[in-house]
Design brief:
- By secondary structure, the chain is an alpha/beta fold.
- The protein has 14 helices and 12 strands.
- The strands form 3 sheets. The chain has a 6-stranded parallel sheet, with helices on both faces. Strands 1-12-11-10 form a 4-stranded mixed sheet.
- The relative contact order is 0.12.
């Protein structure tokens, strides 16, 4: 696999895909036999960011047999892993010294930038780094992803391996939430050189069920932002329809049955219904606790708005969704699941 300088900004002829958003995609659903079909030259994996998602992803890497080294600013969670026999380091730079691959799962663009380029960051030092592959699974803006990818491509490898000539970054944000992270059924949306993606696939396989190759650097981040925009808008539409139905005298259970057997069917109605009492096992059934926090949805909508503005894209629904989720957070519901708009914005009623 030949990976050379500047791939973060230039399209690779053999990949037949451009650096920016394009129509090229590659879908891969991992099967139970994937491990025997695909092997990786990488066994030493660093992981930075041990929050609700990252900690569960690390557990699955360990179960898959990788040698994992972790770091987090929370010393208590690091101790939890060292008590399990997992190695921990004080800085991202120290993690990099022990790792062939480093995965980051962090809250925001600024956190990712700092972990990569800040003091004692992954790229700290004399422009030569040990990891050949860096994978960021955070949800951040494509522009930041591409800046970091360029910085990575300008580094050298301390130790050459086969014909892998330069370190490479993949953006690989995930969908599925905490439950999928726990069960290793995440979906990865991956941007970057395709040959690096193919090499990373066995690692992703240990944490997820599906991966989709989205094209050049930043395209994975772009896909995640667009997915979460669609998720926010569909949740708002579903919540508005169900609360209107209640006002018009239709029970939420009945209207849900109509939606789910008609053209209004969507994930928000048949998998993640926002009305308490309609569906078991979803956040609405437990007072909107757990799930995907409203403050995180607000953050992702801000990312979508910034990205849309940068490319001059008209985005009326982003603006309205931003307004609603900003109010949700201001009203004290920032830690509740984003489906709580049904109760707290639309004033919908629980199903008895």
């Amino acid at each position: 696999m030949a990976i050379r300088r500047g791939q973060a900004l230039l399209s690779l002829p053999k990949l037949k895909t451009s650096f920016f958003l394009g129509s090229y995609s590659r879908f891969h659903r991992f099967s139970s036999s994937s491990s025997s079909q695909h092997s990786t030259q990488f066994q030493n994996v660093g992981f930075i960011g041990l929050g609700n998602m990252g900690s569960r992803m690390v557990n699955n890497l360990v179960k898959a047999g990788f040698n994992v080294t972790v770091h987090d600013i929370n010393r208590d969670v690091m101790k939890m892993f060292t008590d399990m026999g997992v190695s921990a380091r004080e800085t991202p730079y120290e993690v990099a010294q022990d790792s062939e691959v480093v995965i980051t799962m962090l809250p925001s663009s600024s956190h990712v930038m700092d972990v990569y380029t800040g003091t004692n960051g992954l790229l700290h030092g004399d422009n030569a780094i040990r990891p050949a592959l860096l994978i960021d699974s955070s949800t951040i803006d494509p522009q930041t992803t591409r800046k970091i990818s360029l910085a990575v491509s300008n580094c050298n490898l301390k130790e050459k391996r086969d014909n892998w000539e330069k370190p490479v970054m993949l953006d690989a944000p995930v969908s599925g939430g905490v439950l999928a992270a726990e069960a290793a059924t995440l979906t990865f949306m991956v941007g970057g050189p395709e040959d690096a993606y193919l090499e990373a696939r066995p690692i992703l396989e240990s944490m997820g069920r599906t991966s989709i190759y989205c094209g050049g650097s930043g395209n994975g981040s772009a896909a995640k932002i667009c997915n979460n925009l669609a998720m926010a808008v569909s949740m708002l539409g579903t919540s508005e329809a169900l609360s209107l139905g209640q006002s018009l005298g239709i029970s939420a259970t009945t209207l849900t049955q109509v939606l789910n057997t008609s053209s209004g069917r969507c994930w928000s109605s048949d998998k993640y219904n926002p009305v308490p009492g309609v569906m078991k096992g979803v956040p609405s059934s437990r007072d909107y606790n757990g799930g995907f926090a409203s403050k995180l949805m607000a953050k992702d909508l801000n990312l979508a708005a910034d990205s849309a503005e940068e490319v001059g894209h008209k985005s009326a629904l982003i603006s309205k969704a931003q307004e609603i989720y900003k109010k949700m957070c201001e009203d004290g519901h920032e830690t509740k699941d984003f489906s709580c708009v049904f109760r707290h914005f639309y004033k919908g009623k629980d199903e008895v």
